[in-house]
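Handout, page 2. Input:
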Amino acid sequence: MKRLRRIRDLMAGRMDSAVTEALLGQLNATKEGAWLAMAMIGGEVGRTGAHEQMRSIEHLGDEERARLIDELKTALVTPIDPEDLFRLSRSIDDVLDSLRDFVRESHLYRVPDQIRFSPLLDQVIVGIDALESAVRGLAARTAGVAADALEAKKAGGAIRRMYQYEISRIFSGELTADVMKERELVRRLEIVGMAIGDAADAIADGAMKR
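Output:
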């Protein structure tokens, strides 16, 4: 039945919806992880609770990635080349993994005044939203995919610039143990920004080949 549905979609010129749904599932889990990190630094969720919740969110993301890989094995029509889809999925997974590390290390390090990380996490959410819009655009063959990918790329770049300013601030004072822990946390968010940029590149590269 699944195969017949795919053949029907191929004849109608439609994309394989299962692939898109798996990517959107990954992005949804990643967005949940970003909002959880935001709630944690704002004190709405305790560090221990956030650490535990992130495990479940990461598991959901891993399930969606596994589903995508499985769907790609038999997909007849995909929004972009399977290689670019795999690369996109891997980059989204890197975003979620780094958010998991951020929450875990916050739980371990107990750094005070984490609210200063909120501008970086704001841009993480902006980037994830732009990636989601781009994936929907790929499936619908809309003209805004390049603009959405560029928006995600800009968000990743903004995170890296914020990281540089934070590092400059950190190294301008006394290098205490707490300050070095803070440096590790902000580094995690820089890695998130890099992964968002990589995901945007995968979308842009794939769209160019269509």
